[in-house]
Amino acid sequence: MLRLPKFRYLQPRSLSEALRMMADAGTEAMYVGGGTDLYPNMKRRQQTPKVVIGLAQIKPLRMLRGSPEQGMVLGAGLTLTDVCTDKSVQRSYPAVAKAAELISTPLLRNMGSIGGNLLLDTRCNYYDQNYEWRKAIHFCMKKDGEICWVAPSSPRCWAVQSSDCAPVMVAIGAKVQLVSGSGERMLDAAELYNDDGIRHLNKQPEELLTEIHLPPANGWRATYWKLRRRGAFDFPVLGVATCLKLASDGMVETAKIILGGVGSRPIEVVAAQKALLGKKLTRETIQEAGAAAYPAAKPLDNTDYGMAWRKDMARYYVAATLAELAGIPPSGLPPEGPLIGISSTNGKT
Q: Does the pLDDT value for residue 280 go beyond 60?
């Protein structure tokens, strides 16, 4: 049985108190929301804070405010269940609701927070093992070692970003608010992530993610499809978030296609986006965009399934998200055989 290491647990009642606690504890402290990522990591000795600052009692972090017309604000402490069952989120931001609903199991969604999923630690078959296993192979670059076992000659870590909500937030142009004792700053969701398995967040340890700002629902459509071995519990080995805005004549005005689970950060598929602009969503256009997504997906052999097959699936999943937004049945676009483990949502807002 894996056991937690010893640590001191603090439970602030306000945001200012939490910031003071972090300032006092310094580098020995970490924030925790639901703990569904941090506590397993602590059991595996991947993260070993001496002080854990619990955020569950800070009410502003559990608030949802705003309107679809002006944009909505999600408190980072809202549970995934809070997000995926909220009627206003389901109605106006269904891709956000569905991404949250596809994470893990109901019990863990009742605990895990939306902010925690956006800050999810990167994952890798060599990193996500217990301490003794990792010690036996002399550890890896991400924790205690000097080599990336996925790509031994690489100077960087290739652990994978496996958040379901991150690709959706990047695709729809959401923003995040980070707060520390030095002040606060607002970032585009895309700016929160770095292309590095170790330094994967553009966030300082003392900064606290407090809010996620969703843009006004002004006619854009979004959807999210997820590939995983089982229909529940598993992390994505590929996630595709697509957001489109169509003109009155059906032409694509704007397009964002973001891949998750195949790199250390959410990957924007620029070539696929360009293949859509100024065109109608026909089967031919959709297939062209799917093919353009193939080179952008560069998975390595560090998660479930073979990396070549996961790369190939990117073209099919991008095409499937576009078909859904166009109202075209996905059968007849990619071959039906590879489309296993699909989870999708109606992205109309």
A: yes
Q: What are phi and psi for residue 238, nearest 5 degrees?
A: -160, 130
pLDDT per position as a tens digit, 61-73: 999 999 999 999 9
> How far is residue 282's CA from residue 286's CA, in Å, rounded to a whole number?
6
Cα–Cα distance for residue pair 114/214, rounded to 1 Å: 13
Fold of domain 1-57:
3.30.43
Q: Which residues pair with 225 in a beta bridge?
A: 240
Q: Which residues fall within 8 angstroms of residue 143, CB to CB, at 6 or more apart?
A: 46, 127, 134
What DSSP state is assigned to residue 320? H
> Which CATH code of 3.40.50.10610, 3.30.390.50, 1.20.120.140, 3.90.1300.10 fits the domain covering 221-326?
3.30.390.50
Q: Residues for the chain: how many in total? A: 349
Residue 211 has which token pair? 């809010």
pTM of structure: 0.94
Contact 343, 225 (CB under 8 A): yes
What ranges do the domains of the chain cover? 1-57, 60-119+160-214, 221-326
> CB–CB of 267/257 below 8 Å?
no
Point out which residues pair with 223 in neighbouring strands: 242
| Element of type H or E holding 222 | strand 221-227
Main-chain dihedrals φ then ψ at residue 2, nearest 5 degrees: -80, 135
Same CATH topology for 1-57 and 221-326?
A: no
Return the C-alpha torsion angle 324, 319, 86, 112, nearest 10: 160
**Higher confidence at residue 333 or residue 71?**
71
CATH topology of domain 60-119+160-214: 3.30.465
Dihedral sign, Cα of residue 100, residue 104, residue 106, residue 107: negative
| Planar angle of CA 72, 161, 239, nearest 5 degrees | 70
> Which residue bears the tokens 């080995």?
237
